[in-house]
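Example for tutorial group B:
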C-alpha cells in the first residue's frame, strides 16, 4: 500500500518493471496529456491515396466524367457523417451506391408512392433492449410516419430491460441460436434464434405509453415450415401451415393494447418472432444478439434471407459490431476478422439484393494502462478494417468512434455530466444510446437533404 503512493518502478539494462499500484481501481485518474494521445487516426489517414477519382470513358476511350471516390472527399478516420461508397466493379446495374436505395425509398414514402420502409438493424449488446434503435425509430417515424416497434423475438434475455414493449413468456420454449444451432431440418431465424414451443407455451406482448407504441395495429407472426400447427391470438384460433423457410400470419388488430399468443398443439412449428407495425411508415427491426462479432451472420440460410426479403422486405441493412471484436485491447491485426466478414457481406449482398447496407464502426473503447484509462490501440485498427469492408461492398460507412468524439471520448462519456456510458468503458447507458441514435438520425437526414436538393 505504501509503495502505491510513490513511483516504484525501476529499470535494469533494457528491462523496466511495471509500476505497483494496489489503489489503481479506486484512484481518480489524472487526465491524459495531449502528447500521450495515440495518433493512429493520423496514421490511417496517411494511408489514403492522393487522388482516387473514378474516370468514366465513352466508347472511344475519351473521359466523359469524373466520379470522385468518397475517400478523396472525406477522411474516413475523422469524418462524422455517412460516406457512401460506389458499387463494386461488375455489380448488377440495379445496385445503388451506399444509402441511395434507402434514401430514395424514404422519398417515395414521403410522396406516398409506397407504404413502408424497413430497416434491419443487426448488432450485439450495444443495441439490446432496443437501445439506439428505439431513438432512431422514433425520430424516423416522427418525420416519415409509422407506429409500432417492429420485430420482437419470442423470448429474450433482456425482455425486462426493454421499454418499448412489455414482453413476457412461458419458460418452456426451446431456443436454438448461434450458440446452439438447430437440427439440420430447421432454419435459424434472422434474429439468430428459432423457438420451438412446449406443450403449453405462450407469449404476451403489451403496448407502452409512448408515442407510436401505445397500441397494436398490424401484427404478423413469423414462423418456419410446419405441416399443421395451431395457435390462438387473443383467444381466437388460427391454423398454421406452409413449407417455405418463412411463413407469415398477418392480423389486423386496429387498436389492441395486448397480444396473447398460445400454442394450441399439432406438429411442432418453429417460430421466429412477431412484428408490430401500422399501415404505413418507417420500421426499424432490432436484431441484437449478445456476445457476437458479426461473423455469426454467416450461419443464416440464404433461402431464409431471400424468403424474408419476399415476405418482409428490408430497404436498409445496418451492421453495427465491434465491442466483441476488441476482446484484446492491444491487438491491432484484424485479418482474422476481416476475411470472414468479407464472406458474410458477400452473402448478405447476394441474398438481400438492392437493399442498402450501412456499416457502423466500433465505438471508442477504453482500457486501463499505467493507471489511466485510454483508448485501446485496437480501436483505430478495427476502424480501418470496417471501412475497407464497407468500401469493397459498395456500402455506406459511419464512423461512430469519430462521431462520439474520437480519441479518449469514451472516458468523457463515462465520467462526464451527464453520464452517457457504463463503468466498463465499452457500453452506452440508455441516455448515451439515445445520443448515439440522435447522431445516427442526423447523419442519415444530412444525406437525405442532399438527395432532396439534387
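The residue assignment follows.
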Amino acid at each position: 500500500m505504501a509503495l502505491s503512493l510513490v513511483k516504484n518502478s525501476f529499470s535494469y539494462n533494457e528491462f523496466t518493471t511495471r509500476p505497483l499500484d494496489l489503489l489503481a481501481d479506486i484512484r481518480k485518474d489524472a487526465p491524459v496529456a495531449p502528447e500521450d494521445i495515440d495518433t493512429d487516426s493520423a496514421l490511417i489517414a496517411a494511408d489514403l491515396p492522393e487522388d482516387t477519382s473514378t474516370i468514366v470513358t465513352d466508347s472511344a476511350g475519351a473521359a466523359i466524367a469524373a466520379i470522385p471516390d468518397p475517400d478523396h472527399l472525406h477522411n474516413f478516420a475523422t469524418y462524422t457523417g455517412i460516406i457512401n461508397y460506389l458499387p463494386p466493379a461488375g455489380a448488377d446495374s440495379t445496385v445503388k451506391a451506399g444509402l441511395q436505395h434507402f434514401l430514395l425509398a424514404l422519398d417515395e414514402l414521403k410522396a406516398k408512392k409506397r407504404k413502408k420502409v424497413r430497416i434491419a438493424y443487426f448488432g450485439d449488446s450495444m443495441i439490446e433492449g432496443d437501445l439506439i434503435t428505439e431513438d432512431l425509430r422514433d425520430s424516423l417515424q416522427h418525420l416519415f410516419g409509422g407506429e409500432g416497434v417492429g420485430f420482437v423475438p419470442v423470448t429474450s434475455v433482456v425482455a425486462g430491460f426493454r421499454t418499448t414493449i412489455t414482453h413476457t413468456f412461458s419458460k418452456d420454449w426451446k431456443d436454438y441460436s448461434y450458440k446452439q444451432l438447430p437440427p439440420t431440418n430447421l432454419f435459424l431465424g434472422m434474429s439468430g434464434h428459432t423457438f420451438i414451443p412446449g406443450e403449453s407455451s405462450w407469449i404476451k406482448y403489451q403496448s407502452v405509453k409512448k408515442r407510436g407504441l401505445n397500441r397494436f395495429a398490424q401484427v404478423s407472426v413469423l414462423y418456419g415450415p410446419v405441416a399443421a400447427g395451431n395457435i390462438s391470438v387473443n383467444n381466437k384460433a388460427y391454423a398454421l401451415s406452409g413449407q417455405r423457410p418463412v411463413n407469415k400470419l398477418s392480423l389486423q388488430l386496429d387498436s389492441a393494447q395486448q397480444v396473447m399468443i398460445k400454442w394450441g398443439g399439432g406438429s411442432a412449428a418453429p417460430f421466429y418472432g412477431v412484428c408490430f407495425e401500422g399501415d404505413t411508415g418507417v420500421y426499424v427491426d432490432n436484431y441484437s444478439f449478445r456476445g457476437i462479432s458479426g461473423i455469426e451472420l454467416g450461419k443464416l440460410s440464404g433461402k431464409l434471407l431471400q424468403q424474408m426479403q419476399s415476405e418482409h422486405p428490408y430497404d436498409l441493412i445496418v451492421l453495427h459490431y465491434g465491442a466483441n471484436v476488441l476482446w484484446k485491447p492491444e491487438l491491432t491485426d484484424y485479418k482474422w476478422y476481416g476475411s470472414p466478414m468479407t464472406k458474410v457481406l458477400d452473402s448478405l449482398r447476394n441474398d438481400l439484393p438492392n437493399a442498402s447496407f450501412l456499416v457502423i464502426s466500433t465505438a471508442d473503447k477504453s482500457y486501463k494502462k499505467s493507471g489511466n484509462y485510454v483508448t485501446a490501440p485496437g480501436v483505430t485498427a478495427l476502424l480501418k478494417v470496417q471501412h475497407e469492408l464497407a468500401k469493397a461492398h459498395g456500402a455506406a460507412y459511419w464512423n461512430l468512434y469519430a462521431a462520439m468524439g474520437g480519441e479518449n471520448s469514451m472516458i468523457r462519456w463515462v465520467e462526464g455530466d451527464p453520464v452517457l456510458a457504463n463503468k466498463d468503458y465499452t457500453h452506452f447507458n440508455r441516455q448515451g444510446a439515445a445520443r448515439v441514435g440522435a447522431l445516427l438520425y442526423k447523419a442519415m437526414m444530412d444525406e437525405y437533404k442532399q438527395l432532396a436538393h439534387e
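The first strand starts at residue 11 and ends at 12. Compare this with the pattern of hydrophobic and polar residues in the output above.
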